[in-house]
Design brief:
Strand content: under 5%
Shape: globular
Order of helices and strands: HHHHHHHHHHH
Structural class: mainly alpha
Radius of gyration: 18 Å
Length: about 280
């Protein structure tokens, strides 16, 4: 139950971070947004170091660095995807890919689920689609570029989660610190190489920093959850993050909440209950 609650908290934090990141990417080039978000996220993890500890052994360094590369790709691809929009069409694509891959890895590594879990996992995936598919999903079709970016973002998020799961369980927040340091270095280097192509617009500093902070919180909660529970279950619950994105899009951008989304929230509640029993 603790792992499940941590996964739900991670899902909520990811959803809020994604909304703010997508919003920031609408005001300036996506790399300008990430240039603020990634260092802000690293600062949070460094502040957590004295409280949660960190062991920088080979496993933590290797898997942390791998998660950092995946995180950098996820930052850019996801924020660019959400900036192109429509959010309520592209979010389920990204979420499904980010859920299915870790679930497959978890099952291949020998994780076993009871009957409740076998029912709850596919039901949660259905909830992801319903809760993030808005009223315009049938008519507002994303461009091919946006769809490919969404698929890439989902794969990058999935790899980040899998790599964090592979890090030693006694390494504290070391994988998060290493990962965020690597992702910050990658994005800042890319921004430096592309500086002349970033445009004159300044990033939304507060929004971008808040996105990075929330992403760091989400990563921490996921890491704690997966250390106490199964990757398959934690990953699929975390993938419910479009609920937060969609609700914020409704409140801030006045995007309509469709009946199907409300049904998705109910489906998610049932799925999470089944997973809790598992």
């Amino acid at each position: 139950m603790i792992a499940l609650l941590l996964a739900l908290g991670s899902s909520l934090a990811y959803g809020c971070a994604d909304f703010l990141g997508g919003l920031g990417a609408r005001k300036a080039h996506v790399l300008r947004t990430v240039m603020v978000a990634a260092p802000a996220s690293l600062a949070v993890e460094l502040l957590l170091w004295p409280f949660l500890g960190a062991s920088f052994d080979a496993g933590a360094l290797g898997w942390g660095a791998a998660s950092g590369v995946a995180s950098a790709a996820a930052f850019v691809l996801l924020y660019r995807t959400l900036a192109l929009g429509p959010m309520n069409v592209l979010s389920p694509v990204t979420a499904l890919v980010s859920a299915v891959l870790p679930v497959g890895v978890g099952l291949l590594q020998g994780e076993h689920l009871g009957l409740a879990g076998l029912l709850g996992l596919p039901l949660a995936l259905v909830a992801v689609v319903l809760v993030s598919a808005g009223h315009g999903a049938g008519s507002a079709r994303p461009s091919r570029t946006a769809l490919l970016l969404a698929l890439g973002a989902g794969a990058a998020i999935a790899l980040q989660l899998v790599f964090l799961h592979q890090a030693p369980s006694d390494s504290g927040v070391a994988p998060l610190i290493v990962g965020r340091a690597v992702s910050s270095a990658v994005t800042l280097t890319a921004a430096g190489l592309m500086y002349r192509r970033l445009g004159p617009e300044k990033p939304a500093y507060a929004v971008s920093a808040a996105a990075g902070i929330l992403d760091s919180v989400a990563n921490l909660l996921f890491l704690l959850a997966v250390r106490g529970g199964d990757l398959a279950v934690v990953a699929v619950v975390t993938a419910l993050y479009p609920a937060g994105t969609v609700l914020l899009a409704r409140g801030v951008l006045a995007e309509r909440v469709h009946r199907g989304q409300l049904a998705g929230l109910g489906t998610a509640a049932v799925a999470v209950s089944l997973l809790a029993l598992a």
